[in-house]
Amino acid sequence: MQIDFHHGVTWVVARMAGFSSEEAGIIAHSAQYVDDATNQGLIHFDNRMLYERIASAHKMLDYRNFDELADHYAWIPFHFLPGNDGLDTPLTATDEHSFIRRMVCRPDSPPARRMVADLIRQRGQTPDLHRLGIVLHVYADTWAHQGFCGLQHAVNRATKLQDEHGHSPLSLIKRLSEYFREQVEALTGELVGAVLPLGHGAALSWPDLPWLHWRYHNGWGEAVERNNAQDFAAAARALYVACCRYRAGDPDLAVTLPDFSALDQLLWQTQDEDGEVRHQVWLDAIAHGRFHDASGEPIKERLTYLAKGPGSWKAQALGELADEQPKGQVYPWTPAFQHSHWKRFHDALLRHRQYVLLELLPGYGLLAA
Question: InterPro entries attached here (predicted)?
């Protein structure tokens, strides 16, 4: 999924579930920032204090895309949550195929539902809206990224791609593959043939386009048909239920769904391949009151999102020129940093990664880091 869903749709369903405009803003910003937090390492302050942040995503040509351990630290906990083959029982087999099959992402899988339920149980008196946004990102991606895994593995080799009209992007995949190989050779002096089998690289952006109906064969030779419109609609409803349960502090709360027709219509009718263009359509719809909050009142908000630069969470935490500073820059310490959205988001990132890799997945017999 891209920014139109992770920011726009997440904000709308949070408001529909009863969160205030400010709360929904934190949740939706955090959900999208998972895709934009590509830097990691220490932050140095002038009073000798230190803060270490982790990355939840990597740029397409970042060398870390070719580092298997980085796959385990970023793609698995944040983008391709293992689906455990749809089972709620631990892995007992010891062969590689059984392990990989359980590492493949599945929509609304038992691990995904447990992740949401555990977060709700841990909520306490002070809700962690940054962590909620991160979890909603991961949860939504189980629909978009189903059938792929966050490892460099042949299962991710998507071939015979066709949309519902029989069109294929294979020539583009060939050009992209050649481009990747040239870049990797130039950067590392090695030919890395496993680039495209990471995640859904070989399928390009097709899993992330809300309206697309398409089919392909995976690396195991299995024919797969995908209806993104149905999947994205299901994901939006699941996020709504999760938000309602989180507000109530009850992971088992029975939730009645409101009217989703306006949301469904915008998802299916906004057919531009550029996620930023689709995002602007969502922002305009929100500004013009196309959606309603939990009380049934039209929502009219001027919603914005800044990943970096002046006004961004990072700039608020470290200064307006934070993105322009050289590596190793020493920043002036201010007590406000402790409570900044940027720090609280990165704190939540680390907690989520530790939970997934050290608690959630081991509970299913899956050791991934």
Answer: DUF6765 (IPR046653)
Question: With a threshold of 0.70, does the pTM exceed it?
Answer: yes
DSSP 268: H
The pLDDT tens digits of the residues spanning 104-158 come to 999 999 999 999 999 999 987 778 999 999 999 999 999 999 999 988 888 888 8
- Tens digit of pLDDT for each residue in 84-99? 999 999 988 889 999 9
* Local structure of residue 42 (DSSP, 8 states): E
Cβ atoms 102, 352 nearer than 8 A: no
Write the DSSP assignment of 326-357 as a string of letters.
PTTPEEPP-GGGGG-HHHHHHHHHHHHHHHII
Query: Between the CA of residue 200 and those of 5, 56, 173, 195, 218, what are the distances in Å?
Result: 18, 17, 12, 10, 10
Structure tokens at 145: 């990224």
* Distance separating alpha carbons of residues 346 and 131, to the nearest angstrom: 9
Q: How many CB atoms are located within 10 Å of the residue 243 CB? A: 25
Residue 2, SS3?
A: coil
Query: How many whole angstroms separate alpha carbon 331 and alpha carbon 318?
Result: 7
Interacting residues of 140 by C-beta distance below 8 A, sequence separation 6+: 1, 5, 6, 9, 10, 31, 235, 238, 239
- Pairwise CA distance, residues 1 & 206, whole Å: 10
Residue 159: pLDDT band (50, 70, 90) is confident
Residue with tokens 């460099």: 152
CA distances, 335 to each of 103, 313, 327 (Å): 42, 16, 22
Which residues does residue 308 pair with via DSSP β-bridges, in sequence order?
Answer: none
Distances in Å between the Cα of 178 and the Cα atoms of 173, 175, 181, 349 are 9, 5, 5, 34
Q: Under a CB-based contact definition with an 8 Å cutoff, are residues 351 and 131 in contact?
A: yes
Strand partners, 224: 216
Distance, CA of 297 to CA of 299 (rounded, Å): 6
